[in-house]
Amino acid sequence: SILYKELRRSFSSFGKEFMFGFSLPHIRRGKTVRRRAEYNPESKFDGCVAFFVISFMVLILLGVPYGIFVSEQSHYVLMQSLEVLGKMEYKEIEQITSSAAPVYVKGAEISAIASDKEFGGIKAVGGIALSRETEYCQWQEISNTRCETCERQVRAKDGSTSTETYNCNCETTFNYIKGWHSHPIPSLLFNQPGNHHNPLRDPFPSKGPIVAQDVLLYKKQWQAILSPELTKRAHAPWRKLVYSPGGLSPEETRPPRTGGWKSWLSKLFTAESHNRSHNRNKYIHYETLAALPKENLPQGFVYAGDGYFYNAYEASIAERLLKGFFQYAEGTLFDWQLGDVVAALTGSCTAGDIRIKYKVQNPKKLSVLATAVPSRHNKKDPVRLENIVLDDGSIHKALVYSGSKTPAQMIQAQARESRTSATLARVVLFVWAIPVTFLAGAYIGRDFGQSFFGFLFGLLAVFTGTIAFFWSQTWGTFSAQYPFLFAAVTAALTNRLSPPTHAEPGLRAAWCMLAKFAGLPPEWRVQASYRAEYAPKPLPEEYVPSRQKRTT
C-alpha cells in the first residue's frame, strides 16, 4: 500500500518536473529474511525491546486522553471568550483618540513584506507570512511479513493450561524506494543500510509561519499596525509561491497554445504549463515575483522552477569509501538491478538532495477584532492593534480574518473552527477507546472478542464515560449527566451480552493481554488461572449469619 501511494504521488508530478530530473522514484528489491519455524521456550528474549515496546504503548494509553482533556479545556476557554466578545460593543477605529479601546476593522487594505532572512532574503511583497517547506530525497524501507498460524500450550500460575495461537514460520521481504519526503529518514536500522544510506543533513529545516514585522492596515482616513502576534494567528489561505523570469506574470511566461500532439507533449513535459498558474481557483490573488539573483541564494542552491530551490548532495571521498565497505560487508556491492538503470537514465534524485518551496499568505484585505492602542509619543502615528483587554483585566485573543467580515461572522467562523477541532479530537479518543475496551474486558472478565454487541456497548461505555468525566471537569456536571447515564446503561448491557473469559479477571489479565499484543513471550505474561467461568467467591463462614448458613 505504501509503495503504491508513493508511486502514484511521484508519477503524478513526473510530467511537470521531468526537466529537473529529480521526481521519478527509484525502486529496489532487498533481502528476504526467514525467522525460526516454531516457538522455543528456552530461547532468550530481548528485554530492552520489550521495555521500549511496553513503555510506548503505556505512553499512548495515558498520553492520548491527557491530550484530549487539554483540547477540551482549550475549546471551553475559547467558547467562553467568544461569548464575551459577542456581547461587546466595538468602536470605529477613527474614534480612537488617547485611550485604548476595542475596535472593529472591516476589509482594510494591506501593506506588508514577508521575508525569510535565513534563506537568502526570500521575500513576498504583499505577503503577511511565509512558510518554508523543506523536502529531502531519502530511501524508505518497506517490509512485508507473511506468517503461518501455529498453536502452543501456555501454563497459568496455578498449573492450569490453555491453547493460544501465534505467528510462526515468518518470512519478511524488504523493498526500498527513493523519493521526496517531508522529513529525514534514519537508515542505520535498515536491513541493508550500506546500499541505502540516507545522509541526514538539514541546513534549512521547515519553518513557519515567518510573519512580516508590523503589517500596515490602511484606508483613506486612518492607518493601523498589526502586531506580529496577531499576524501569526491570521486566518488566510496559503498559496504556493512561484517565481517567474524577470518578474513577469505566469500568463505572460506561459507558451502559446497549439493544437495536436505537440500541445499534449508540451503539457506533459514543460514546467510552465504545469505550474497551474493560469488556474485562478488555485492561485487567485497570488503575487508572482522575480527570481532572486544567484549570488543571493545560499551556497549550492539554484532555482529549479515551479517554486523549488534545489541543492544537490555531493558525498566526500571518505564517505564513498565507507559506503563501499558497508556494501561489501552486507553483500550488496555488486547488487545491480533494473531500477538502478531506470534511475540513471531518467535522472532520479540522489539520497541527500534537498529542495525547498515556499507558501505565502497574501490576502488583499483583512478584518480584525482587537484593541487599538494609540501611540504615546505622536498622535499622528498609526495605532497598534493588540489582543483585547477588558476593564476587569481579562485578556481575549484578537480575531484576524481575510476579506471583509463583520464581527458576528468572525466570531461564528472562530467558533466553527473550534468545534471542528474538538470533534476531531473526540474521534481520536474514540479510536483510543477500542484497545482500552478490550483491556477493560480482560479486567472485568468479559470476552468482547466473542460478542460483537458486547464489544460495541463496551466501546460506547468507555468512550462516553471518558467524555463525561472530561466535560464534568470543564463544562460542569450538568453537561456531563447525560453522558454519564448513557455510559452506565451501556456498561450494564455489556456485562449482560458478553460471555465470561477463560482466565481469571483482574489487573494480571489486563497486563497479559497488553503484553501479548506487544509480542512478549508467554514467560513474561503468566495468567493467574485458566478456567471456564469465575463465580463470586463465597464469604468465610464466620462472616455469614447462622440462619443463612448452608452446606455446599
Could you walk me through the main structural features you see in this protein, from its secondary elements to its overall organization?
The protein is an alpha+beta fold and 552 residues long. Helices cover 36% and strands 24% of the residues. It contains 14 helices and 21 strands. It has helices spanning 2-12, 14-17, 47-86, 228-232, 250-253, 261-269, 271-274, 280-283, 317-330, 338-346, 407-444, 452-474, 477-497, 507-517; strands at 26-34, 91-92, 101-111, 113-116, 122-125, 129-155, 161-181, 207-211, 215-218, 223-226, 239-240, 243-244, 289-290, 301-305, 308-311, 354-361, 365-373, 383-386, 388-389, 395-396, 399-402. Strands 1, 6, 7, 8, 11, 14, 15 and 16 form an 8-stranded antiparallel beta sheet that branches. A 5-stranded mixed barrel has the order 3-9-10-18-17. The protein has a two-stranded antiparallel ribbon with strand order 4-5. Strand 9 (215-218) and strand 10 (223-226) form a beta hairpin. The longest helix is centred in the first third of the chain and has 40 residues, at 47-86. Residues 6-22, 246-259, 265-291, 534-539 and 543-552 have low confidence and may be disordered.
Q: Keywords for this structure?
A:
single chain; 552 residues; alpha+beta; eight-stranded antiparallel sheet; five-stranded mixed barrel; 14 helices; 21 strands; 36% helix; flat
